[in-house]
């Protein structure tokens, strides 16, 4: 080796290099956290011009590579902890999550087999048991950590599909999909996350397999429309694999009426998956846990900890009500989860996951729960929901702003409303306001559509943000609108 050993290992040289690299990066992070701007405001073209890979024959060494990452990545990163960074379901992270990442990364355990992650496997299984208890499932460990909501939704849809055909004596796992594929359907509300469509396409069933159910004025699934559409599907000989309810839609934060939908799913003998990627945070809430009433009745659940649980990306989970359904994705790989191992009760989590090599993201949530405790976790989750209500009340009082709908979780949908202009002009103005704010580096406010109306969105996850911060942001929105007019 031309240089010193680059691998993390026991030697004095390696541990010293490790400590130096971590010290250099963590000091840079501390400085970055203090940058006043939310974003340095460089354009796409500027960043393309500025950023280039410096891959040389001899290598730059750790220190110089880190300096370059600070210069070209860190300084031009979006400050997700900034009070005016509210565009997405994109949270600032817990300090304890950062400490967990150090352990996760340094140990580099892989969750696919016991012999690559012994203590980690047990911690993940115990955390899944604990999460199951929180949703009200029976004791057990059917579930797994995932890369996030998209993957968890895929697991729910895939198991629903395979359970549907298994009931008809057909194994999709062995023989692939049977019959007329155009008859296969899943149902979700028109506000469900697009990962439902993408996952159905990935499963070979196409976007058209998704039947959209109407929503009520609170953006929740309209159960009368669900029942009607299911009856029509049955009359047309369609095969309904699953209903996907959402607990926390991406924009409006709407929570579908889970208990009622569970009743309809039971009557139709249909798998019910709940995408609680966002709303699942309310499991830890003091004030709002009841919004998730009925979640214990569903067949499978998506949870995301890199949203309102404040964990670093990525960190999600999939929970499966009945462990027997895991048989539908069983694959025995001699080198990972052999029959011999399993007969002796060795837990190899590859059996529960779509991934093979997998990060030990469960540690972040485990350490987060231990460090914060129930009371503080509840407080930081409840903060956003309560703040959204206060912000909505404020928006409703501003003559130049219009509240597009009442908040349900921690988001506020609103728009700037000039005295003149048709809908298209107002839509364009709001789009431009969002773009101008990001270009200026001062704020990141979401631009989205709700019921065909282009609006601005604030996702108020950050527990350190106050109503005063948001009033300043809204004043900035108004000034930006005036400068664009
Ligand atoms: C309701 C909902 N479900 C699923 C997802 C996808 O989750 P992920 O980005 O973790 O894959 C999102 C993302 O925002 C979401 O809002």
TrEMBL record:
Which Gene3D superfamilies does this UniProt record tie to the protein? Answer: 3.90.1150.170, Type I PLP-dependent aspartate aminotransferase-like (Major domain)
Q: Is Metal-binding tagged as a keyword?
A: no
Listed cofactors: pyridoxal 5'-phosphate
Question: Mind listing the UniProt keywords for this protein, alphabetically?
Answer: Aminotransferase, Decarboxylase, Lyase, Pyridoxal phosphate, Transferase
Alphabetized GO MF terms: transaminase activity
The record's listing under InterPro entries reads: PyrdxlP-dep_de-COase, PyrdxlP-dep_Trfase, PyrdxlP-dep_Trfase_major
Pfam families membership: Pyridoxal_deC
Q: What is the similarity comment for this entry?
A: Belongs to the group II decarboxylase family.
Q: Which PANTHER family match?
A: CYSTEINE SULFINIC ACID DECARBOXYLASE, GLUTAMATE DECARBOXYLASE-RELATED
Would you tell me the protein name for this molecule? Aspartate aminotransferase family protein
């Amino acid at each position: 080796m031309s240089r010193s050993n680059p691998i993390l290992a026991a030697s004095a040289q390696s541990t010293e290099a490790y400590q130096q690299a971590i010290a250099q990066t963590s000091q840079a992070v501390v400085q970055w956290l203090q940058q006043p701007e939310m974003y340095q405001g460089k354009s796409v073209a500027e960043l393309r011009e500025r950023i280039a890979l410096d891959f040389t024959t001899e290598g730059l060494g750790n220190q110089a590579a880190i300096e370059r990452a600070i210069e070209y990545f860190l300084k031009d990163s979006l400050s997700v902890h900034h009070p005016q960074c509210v565009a997405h379901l994109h949270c600032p992270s817990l300090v304890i999550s950062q400490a967990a990442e150090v352990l996760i990364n340094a140990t580099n355990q892989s969750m696919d087999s016991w012999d690559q992650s012994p203590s980690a496997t047990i911690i993940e299984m115990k955390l899944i048991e604990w999460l199951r208890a929180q949703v009200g499932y029976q004791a057990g460990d059917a579930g797994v950590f995932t890369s996030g909501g998209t993957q968890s939704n895929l697991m729910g849809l895939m198991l629903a599909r395979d359970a549907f055909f298994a009931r008809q004596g057909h194994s999709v796992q062995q023989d692939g999909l049977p019959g007329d594929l155009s008859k296969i359907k899943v149902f979700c509300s028109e506000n469900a996350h697009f990962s439902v469509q993408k996952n159905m396409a990935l499963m070979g069933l196409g976007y058209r397999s998704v039947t959209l159910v109407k929503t009520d004025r609170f953006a929740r699934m309209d159960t009368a429309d669900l029942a009607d559409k299911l009856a029509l599907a049955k009359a047309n000989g369609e095969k309904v694999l699953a209903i996907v309810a959402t607990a926390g839609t991406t924009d409006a934060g709407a929570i579908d009426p889970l208990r009622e939908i569970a009743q309809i799913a039971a009557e139709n003998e249909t798998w019910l998956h709940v995408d609680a990627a966002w709303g699942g945070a309310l499991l830890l809430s003091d004030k709002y846990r009841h919004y998730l009433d009925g979640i214990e009745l569903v067949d499978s659940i998506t949870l995301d900890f890199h949203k309102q649980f404040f964990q670093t990306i990525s960190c999600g989970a999939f929970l499966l009500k009945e462990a027997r359904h895991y048989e539908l994705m069983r694959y025995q790989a001699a080198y990972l989860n052999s029959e011999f191992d399993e007969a002796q009760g060795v837990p190899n989590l590859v059996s529960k996951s779509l991934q093979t090599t997998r990060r030990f993201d469960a540690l972040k949530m485990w350490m987060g729960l231990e460090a914060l405790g129930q009371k503080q976790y509840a407080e930081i989750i409840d903060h956003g929901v309560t703040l959204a209500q206060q912000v909505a009340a404020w928006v409703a009082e501003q003559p130049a702003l219009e509240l597009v709908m009442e908040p349900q979780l921690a988001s506020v949908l609103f728009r700037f409303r000039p005295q003149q202009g048709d809908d298209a002009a107002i839509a364009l103005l709001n789009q431009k306001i969002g773009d101008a704010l990001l270009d200026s580096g001062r704020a990141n406010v979401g631009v989205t559509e709700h019921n065909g109306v282009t609006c601005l969105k604030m996702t108020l996850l950050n527990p350190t943000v106050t109503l005063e911060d948001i009033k300043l942001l809204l004043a900035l929105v108004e000034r930006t609108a005036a400068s664009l007019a």
